Amino acid sequence: MSVLAATPEVLVRFGAGAIFQDSFVLGTNQGVLGVNVLGSQTSVQLPSVQQVSVRRGKDSVDGSFGAGGASVQFLDFTGEWNPTDTNGPYFGELVPGRQLQVRIIDDTNTGYNLFAGYITAWDWQWQPGADWASVSITAADASRNFQLAKISTVAGTAAGDLPGDRINAILEETEWPATARNITTGTTTLQANPTQLRTVLDALRQIETADLGALFVDVSGRVTYLSRNDLSAKAADTPVVFNETDRPYDRIDVALDDDQIINTATVTPAGLTAQTAENTASVTKYFRRTLERNNVLVQDEARALQQATAIVASRGNPELTLRSVGFNVLTPARAVELVTTEIGDPLEITRTYASGTVQFRSIVQGINWDITPNRWRGSFSTVDNLALTTAFVLGSTQFGVLGVNTLG
């Protein structure tokens, strides 16, 4: 894989636990104080990796973040990864639930994560007469763990909680370690925690929905929450640039359709009265396009109406929108820039025509990687803003429209 812009590395960590910071190994790229952690768990690098695929995030602003996933294929020439060999070095350890970490190592021997999650399946294929095996591994991030666990009451919560405080309380109930979290507080006050039995993931999604925020698992396996205000602030950050010269892409998908139109929004707080807002100009022009958000955990009807009003103000008209950008990772410097791009980060794409140029500014909502020994492809799925409302970016003709875009 030396032809690639950076070297892929896949680690399997034997032993239980939810920590994905690299173990501290003195004198190596895993020996960074304040970044790597001391630990007794054993990490083993997979040999002869032939293919790595990573899928994280989502493809639609109206959907939820699903569990991120990875698949890895490697060749076992030594038999060390034979699950039936009682004398093998990993016998009894080749089971679901072990940690899988995918990263790349740049030309300065620095590691950058692409994925951290839990193995869901192993698959071995042997060819007749061959003394080697092709081994495939699939994995999912912590979202899948939260989908499999259920919760009802949450200690230490009360009406008036802020989103980040409630999320941390739920994670405490599941004994998710504080070192594997990156949770911002948010400003939306919440109703008391519902007591009905539900999955941990559903409990977390209720908070995300109430705040119009974004909850996902990052490349290091940390549960991450960005409030609506955080998303608006990130939309104004310095973007990752794509163009047709020194930062090339090989495919962009731009769309103008009616799927994004919402001109009537009803937000119903749990146990309270539904609040409806309407963009009458949009209804007249495009007919009624309705969104309903039910049992939302916002604390009062005023907040529900504010949310509905913001949605129809920013989604009343279709906009020419960048949906995705595809690219090959060609240089070490570009590799680092792209792999450190995370969900919620802004992009700027310039397209040149004979008649001039057009520029799109968008937000990353999904990240895909496909790596083989000879090729490294990536793509970002994008949206105007991860929240249902569109952030206000001062000086931007796309996001700086008073009365349409919303201040964080």
SSE blueprint and pairings:
Elements (H helix, E strand, L loop, with lengths): L6 E8 L27 E4 L3 E9 L11 E8 L22 E7 L5 E16 L6 E8 L1 H7 L1 E2 L11 H11 L7 E3 L14 E2 H12 L2 E4 L5 E4 L1 H8 L4 E3 L8 E5 L8 E6 L5 E4 L1 H7 L3 E7 L4 H15 L5 E8 L3 H8 L6 E8 L2 E17 L2 E9 L25
Parallel strand pairs: 9-12, 13-19, 15-17
Antiparallel strand pairs: 1-2, 1-5, 3-4, 3-20, 4-7, 5-6, 6-7, 8-10, 11-12, 14-18, 15-16, 18-21, 19-20, 20-21
Helix pairs in contact: 2-3
Structural summary, described in words:
By secondary structure, the chain is of the alpha+beta class. It has four domains: 7-140, Irregular (Factor Xa Inhibitor), CATH 4.10.410; 146-226, 3-Layer(bab) Sandwich (Phage tail protein beta-alpha-beta fold), CATH 3.55.50.10; 233-256 and 319-383, Baseplate protein-like domain - beta roll fold (Phage tail proteins - horseshoe like beta roll fold, Roll), CATH 2.30.300; 258-315. It has seven helices and 21 strands. The protein has helices spanning 142-148, 163-173, 200-211, 228-235, 280-286, 301-315, 332-339; strands spanning 7-14, 42-45, 49-57, 69-76, 99-105, 111-126, 133-140, 150-151, 181-183, 198-199, 214-217, 223-226, 240-242, 251-255, 264-269, 275-278, 290-296, 321-328, 346-353, 356-372, 375-383. Strands 1, 2, 3, 4, 5, 6, 7, 13, 14, 18, 19, 20 and 21 form a 13-stranded mixed sheet that branches. Strands 9-12-11 form a three-stranded mixed sheet. A hairpin with a 5-residue loop joins strand 5 (99-105) and strand 6 (111-126). 39% of the residues are buried. The model is unreliable at 22-40 and 391-408 (pLDDT under 50).
